[in-house]
Specification:
Strand order of the largest sheet: 6-7-8-9-10-11-12-13
Number of helices: 12
CATH architecture of the largest domain: Alpha-Beta Barrel
Oligomer: single chain
Distance between the termini: 37 Å
Structural class: alpha/beta
Number of strands: 15
Bound molecules: magnesium ion
Radius of gyration: 20 Å
Shape: globular
Helix content: 40-55%
CATH topology of the largest domain: TIM Barrel
CATH class of the largest domain: Alpha Beta
CATH superfamily of the largest domain: Enolase-like C-terminal domain
Order of helices and strands: EEEEEHHHHEHEHEHEHEHEHEHEEEH
Length: about 375
């Protein structure tokens, strides 16, 4: 049986320019490098995926080379409806140098394109095609960065609540515990008790420090405590988890179902947060969802956008979409625009993954 045939792959590098400088405990972000992947078919249906890189340069170039030179020849001639066969084939080709790292960015992008094509071919959002659980997902705003000014931190959090978000995530761990407490209380005073707050330490602590700080976040009523330590220290994370009642959240830096499986078996956290680049696309997300659900655990996305909304709407144990502001979507790369009602982001009715990128946007920012 053959329904559609893949005829080509194109990877385009965009530089969307320098952004407002924001930091977490360990990293600073201010650049807009992105790879847009297109997969073409014999019926004229094109699948899209976007891979945010956060910097312009070698990483974007390597992802493009892997996509076009290594993986594309294996994909051409395949039927997008055979997504699990495609996943296995791409893995097989990448396992000599390793399927993690940027190779997984490329595999994940192709998986997203494949599912975009399937949804488009059937004329339905992919979240429905794979078996939906809901048509909307609660969203929290990732706005509590360390900015250049303290005023901006407060303003962005207040604006997100005014926009309709009912949960906000705050970065912690860059400075002292006293500074964390001050930052948390500042936002609690501004937004009131009905807005849920989560904290994210971005791997800043060792186990002792993570416990001391975790108790403080717990007392302040934080909803979850994200990435206290290096996520590869799974046993350490499990010991911490056992000593705290605040749920630990982890997973944005885990690659593929196997690392999630190890973390779940170790008892590393209660909430798992796959990232669309590292976790490996929708095919892999659905299996990660099954692994976490079978262990009685919850799942939230790392990152937002239409692809993640489609995935989370098909995942029964999903609790949150991470999102930036939905204002100014007229300038966003996606043709599909997201809508929020009562703090929840609606599954877009666009056929496919909602990942199609506007050609005007591509023309404006393309560098390669
Ligand atoms: Mg995080």
């Amino acid at each position: 049986m053959l329904i559609l045939k893949i005829t080509g792959v194109e990877a385009i590098i965009l530089n969307t320019g320098s952004k407002r400088k924001v930091s977490d405990a360990l990293h600073t972000y201010d650049a807009g490098g992105c790879v847009v992947t297109k997969v073409f078919t014999d019926e004229g249906i094109t699948g899209y995926a976007t891979t945010g890189i956060g910097r312009v340069g070698a990483t974007c170039d390597i992802v493009k080379v892997i996509l076009e030179k290594e993986l594309a020849p294996l994909l051409i001639g395949e039927d997008p409806f055979f997504s699990r066969k495609i996943r296995q084939k791409l893995w097989g080709s990448a396992d000599y140098h390793g399927v993690e790292g940027v190779a997984q960015f490329a595999i994940a992008a192709l998986d997203t394109c494949v599912w975009d094509i399937v949804g488009k071919a059937l004329g339905k959002p992919t979240g429905l095609v794979v078996g939906a659980h809901r048509d909307r997902i609660p969203a929290y705003a990732m706005v509590g960065w360390y900015y250049e000014t303290e005023k901006e931190y407060v303003d962005r959090c207040v604006e997100a609540v005014e926009e309709g978000f009912r949960a906000l995530k705050l970065k912690v761990g860059k400075y002292s515990l006293e500074d964390d407490i001050r930052r948390i209380k500042q936002i609690q005073n501004e937004v009131g008790p009905n807005i849920r707050l989560m904290v994210d330490a971005n791997q800043a602590f060792d186990e002792v420090e993570a416990l001391t700080r975790g108790k403080a976040y717990e007392e302040l009523g934080m909803y979850w405590y994200e990435e206290p330590m290096i996520p590869q220290h799974k046993e350490s994370q499990a010991r911490l988890s056992a000593k705290l009642s605040i749920p630990l959240a982890i997973g944005e830096n885990y690659y593929t179902r196997y690392e999630f499986y190890d973390a779940v078996r170790t008892g590393a956290a209660s909430i798992y947060q796959p990232d669309n680049r590292r976790a490996g696309g929708l095919t892999e997300w659905l299996d990660i969802a099954a692994i976490t659900e079978a262990a009685g655990l919850k799942l939230a996305s790392h990152g937002g956008g239409p692809a993640n909304v489609n995935a989370l709407c098909a995942i029964p144990n999903a609790i949150y979409l991470e999102s930036g502001s939905l204002k100014n979507q007229d300038n966003s790369m996606y043709v599909t625009k997201l809508k929020m009602e009562n703090g929840e982001i609606l599954l877009p009715d666009t056929p496919g993954m909602g990942t199609e990128v506007s050609e005007t946007f591509i023309a404006k920012y393309r560098i390669s």
